[in-house]
Structure formats: C-alpha cells, structure tokens
Amino acid sequence: MPKVAKVKNKAPAEIQITAEQLLREAKERDLEILPPPPKQKISDPDELADYQHRKRRAFEDNLRKNRSVISNWLKYAQWEESQKEVQRARSIYERALDVDHRNITLWLKYTEMEMRNRQVNHARNLWDRAVTILPRANQFWYKYSYMEEMVGNIAGARQVFDRWMEWEPDEQAWLTYIKFELRYKEINRARTIYERFVYVHPDVRNWTKFAKFEEQHGFISGSRKVFERSVEFFGEETMDEKLYIAFAKFEENQREHDRARVIYKYALDHIPKDRAQELYKAYTIHEKKYGDRTGIEDVIVSKRKFQYEEEIKANPTNYDAWFDYLRLVESEGNLDSIRETYERAIANVPPTKEIKANPTNYDAWFDYLRLVESEGNLDSIRETYERAIANVPPTKEKQFWRRYIYLWINYALFEELEAEDEERTRQVYRACLELLPHKHFTFSKIWLLYAQFEIRNKNLTMARKMLGMALGMCPKDKLYRGYIDLEIQLREFDRCRILYEKFLEFGPENCVTWMRFAELETLLGDTDRARAIYELAVNQPRLDMPELLWKAYIDFEVSLGETEKARELYERLLERTLHVKVWMSYAQFELASADESNVELARRVYERANLSLRGANEKEERVLLLEAWREFETQHGDESSLNNVIKKMPRRVKKRQRVQADDGTEEGWEEFFDYIFPEDEATKPNLKLLEMAKAWKKQQQTNDEEKEGNDDDDDDDSNSS
C-alpha cells in the first residue's frame, strides 16, 4: 500500500477560504462558461444538405429518446419552418399529434404556423379538428372566430360562434359573441343572443345587462319588458335586491318616479329584511330626492321597524324594544297591525325559570314587572313587587345592592304615580329604609326621594325629620348637599347656616363646602361673615384642594375692590408655597390693579419670583416664569427691560445620565434636556478656580509621596553595599 502523506501541522490556516468565496471567484473568472461554437458559413448546396442532414438526425435521435416530450417536437417543427420546409414541418406536427392529441399548445403552434404561411384553408381545417376534439378549450374558439373575422369571412365567424354556443360556454364567450354582432350593427341578432344567454346563465347581473342593452339602443319599452320578465323569472322565492334596485333606477332615469316607488315598496314587502339593507338605502335616497314629507317618513318608519325586528329576534324578552315597537305601530293607526304586534309581544313570557334558578337575578325581575304592569292589574303588580323585594341580597356589600334598590324605587313610584296611594308609598319608603344596613352603607337617593315625596304632599316637618335622621345615622356629602338645597329653595337661610356648620364639622377638609358657604353669605350681603369663613378655611391644617380655596378667597376680595387685602392674601400664600402659578397670578393681579404704577409692581413680582425660583433650583418652573415675563415686557415694557429679560433666558441642552434599577444595578444611559441660565453661568468661574486649586494640591501630595519612596530605596541600596 502506498504511504499516505501525514499532515504535520493540523492547526487552522491563518486565512480561511469559505465556499462563498470559491463560488464568487468562479463566477468572476467565468470558469464554467463555455465559449460559443464557431459560426458556420454555408456557401454551396452540398454544405446546406449536409447541415440539414446532421440537424435532422440530431432531432430524430432526441425524439427516439424522449418521444413524449412535446418541446422536442416543437423545436424540430420550428427549425423545419425556418428552413422553409413547411411540408416537413406539417408532417412533424402531425406525428406529434399522434403522440398527444390533447395538447393545446401543440394545436396552437400548428395553426399559427399555417396562418403565418398564409395557408388559411389548412388553418381552418386544423381549427375544425381542434374544436371537434377539444370543444371545451375556449382558446381554440376565440382564435378560430378571430381568424375568420380577420380574413373577412363574417358569415363563417358567425357560424363558428353558433357552433360554440351549442356547448353553452361561460359568460364571457356569450358577451364576445354579442360584441361581435354589435360591431356589425346587428342589433336584432344581438338581442336574440341575449335571449338565449339569460336562460343559459340565469343570473341577476346578466338580466340587468340585457335591460341596459335595450336601454342604450333606445328601446325603453323593451328594457322595461326585460325587467318585468326577470321579476317573473326569479319569482318570490329567489328575489334579489340588486334586481329591484336596478329596475327602480331605470324607472327613475325615465322620470317615472311613481313606478320606481311602487317597485321599492313591492321589494321591501317581499324580500326578507336581513337581505334588504341596500334596498332601504336606495329607497331612502330616492324619497329624499323626489318624494314628499310623507314618503320620507314612511321610509324612516319602515327602517326603524326593521331595527326593532332585529332587536326582538336577538332577544324576544327585550320588553323595552317591544314597547318602542308598539309605540311606532300605534303611531301608524292600523288596528290590525297593532293587535298583531301586541299578541307577538305578550307571547314572550318572561324568564320565570331564570327567577326560580336565581331569585336575585334582578334584571329578570325588571322584565317580569314590565310585563305585569302592561296588564294594568294593580293587585297583580303589587304582588309581583312584593315577591321581587323579598329577595334581599345575601351579603352586606354595596355593589350587590345597587340593582336591588331600584326595585324599591320603582315600587314607590308605582304606588305614588299609578296607584296614587299616598300612605302605601310612605310605607314602601319606610320599609326600604328599615331594611338598609346603615352601619355598613346607605343610599342617599332613597332618603332624598322620601323627603321630596313628603314635600310634594306638604309634609315639610316629616321631610326635615327624615333628613335629620339620615344625617345622624349615616352622614354623607350628598345628603348634606340635598338637605341644604332643599332649605335654600324654601328660603330658610338660618337653617342653611346651621347645616353648613354641621357639614364642615363632618368634613372640614372639603374646600368646595367652605366656598359654597362663603358664596351663600356673599349672596346674602354679609361680607364680614364670608371673609371670616374664608379665614377659617385657609387656616385648616388639611384641605383637599387648597389652590381652589385661595383663588376663591382672592377673587372674593378683588370683587369687593379690596386690592390691599388681596395683595396681603398673595403674600400669605407665598409664605406657604412658591409655586410658579402663584407668582404669575400675583403678577397678573398687580398688572390689572388700578394703581398708576401697576406695570412696575408687576415687574417687581416677576423679579422676586425669579430670585425665589433660582434659589429653589426649579428650572422648568423658572423657564415658564421667564417666558411669561418676556411676554409681559413685550406688551407693557420698553426695549431695555425686554433685553434684560431676554438675557436671562436659558439655553436648552441635551445631556446624558445613568439609569439605575430598583435593585441598584445599572441599566444604561438615558438622554434628557437641561436648561443653563446665564445668571448661573456667571458664578461658575469661581467654582472652576477652586476645583483647579484642589486638583493642584492633590497632585503635589502625590509627587511628595513618590519622592519619599525614592529616598527610602536609595538608603536600602547603600546599607546593602
């Protein structure tokens, strides 16, 4: 065995060559591209015969190897045609057809060769053979008829189309035949073809095309007859809204608006509503264009009927939809239709099974109660209400009582408005209030409704007693406001003052209550009491919206013309907060004051605000202040004061800072915008000088330490020597 050379160095090469590089180099060098064969010039008949003999032998060899490959036959025939040997090419095509007579490409190439060589009769014979063998190949029929038309044989082309139509081809074939007849002005022949076409392909679209054909050629009565025949043809079982829309638009174009209206109504009465959306739209547009007010209302009513039908179909026990539907039907005044709709409505018995399965299903109870109320039997209605309210929610959480409480409200309203029983209504309200667990929660609505009921029955003492009981058992903001509004309507202002005092004892942090109390005193003309109320309010240790309260207090003093007191309030407010909006409001106040030096006072406020915010390092608020100051100087200042403010305006720069997660790990960097103020930049040179001095001192300390270390090394060397 020969010895195999051993590779001593098995380490990878420094320069690695990939398969992609090899392929790229091969492509660049064109290693696989063979040079083209040399061109052969044939100079005499012997050379031509030798060339043809070699080519034919090569083609025949290919055919013997792959007889079923049609491309070989096509190349062979095309080469013979290029040699002007049409007879030989024809023989090759015939041999190929013996191999595969169902190949459409083969037939097309064969006939195209005959037509190129102006052999019309040969091509005609080929087309006859092709359409006889493959009558469903539409390409043959299209090209056959086109050839006959091009050679001027119109009768022959028509005969081809007739033969084709006997096979009942697709719609495009019929339309092609019709266009052929229209090119030669044969209207009657085209009409006859349409007659056959609409029965072979009975589609609404085709009937519509037939009618438009008649209309375009001026046969209006013929177009109308086509539409009428199409309606009879499809009947009532397979009605399509598109057909009726097209029919109505045709009549509309002929200005026969009454005919169009009749067609729309007939279609809407017979087509199911879920398949007549476009029909409703078309009818509405037609009536808006050409109808009167009654016609438009009829369209809208029919559309709303359809909507109610859909809602009822989705939920037959949706009694709200039934009530709306019944009102609509009653407005028409048709007694039979009203009775029919009522019968349909009451046939939908409420879901008593759902009530039995879940007695606290209050939606089911509401549906049941609506049905019972529609019967008008008071005893039955009361019995149903009693059954409904007996199903108390099993838990003392307010969310489960929200729906239940409306059963009591509806019961009380029924007794008051329908039964007109005052004492029974009072009993319903009291039973409801006794049932509610007031220690856990209450419903202010019930207390207020009961009080309003007593007032309607001129029992003011009982109304006040119940509201006082409510405030004692379960005080709430809504109860206080309702009681106060009641006393204001009764003009009992002393009672209002007492209620406001109780309200403020209950919730002293509520700024709205303080403001309304002061507004009441202001309306009554007692400004000293109003001012005292505001003073008490602003001195409270905890408030929910103090900014609203201070603003209301300042506006109160301004409305009275007390400018000095308003200025004192601003100063007191600035002792508590240095918010930029307070400074800006203060400046606007000074500007709007009646003093002659109001502009100078406002400028001083802006200067104080700038110094204050500069010390607090509030850059964004400081920017807002400077922008407002600049606008103020633009409107009320001179050029020097404006330039002074512009010099204070900051530059906006983009900076980066590290982002740390909650656990202290770094998550990268983030960009943010910072503002650099010229006033702050002026103090930085001193800081830079201090930093440079500190760095110099540190460098000196480092140099001294290195020098001492070198001296110690020299001493060690001398001792060792």
Automatic annotation (TrEMBL):
Repeat among keywords: yes
Record's keyword annotation contains Magnesium: no
GO cellular component: post-mRNA release spliceosomal complex; precatalytic spliceosome; Prp19 complex; U2-type catalytic step 2 spliceosome
One Pfam assignment: HAT_PRP39_C
Family to which the UniProt record says this protein belongs: Belongs to the crooked-neck family.
Entry-linked SUPFAM superfamilies: TPR-like (SSF48452)
Start and end residues of each stretch annotated as Disordered: 28-47, 695-721
Source species, domain of life: Eukaryota
Gene Ontology biological process terms in this record: spliceosomal complex assembly
Domain Pre-mRNA-splicing factor Syf1-like N-terminal HAT-repeats positions: 58-203
Keywords from the UniProt entry: mRNA processing, mRNA splicing, Nucleus, Repeat, Spliceosome
Subcellular location field: Nucleus
Family annotation (SMART domains): HAT
Protein name: Pre-mRNA-splicing factor Syf1-like N-terminal HAT-repeats domain-containing protein
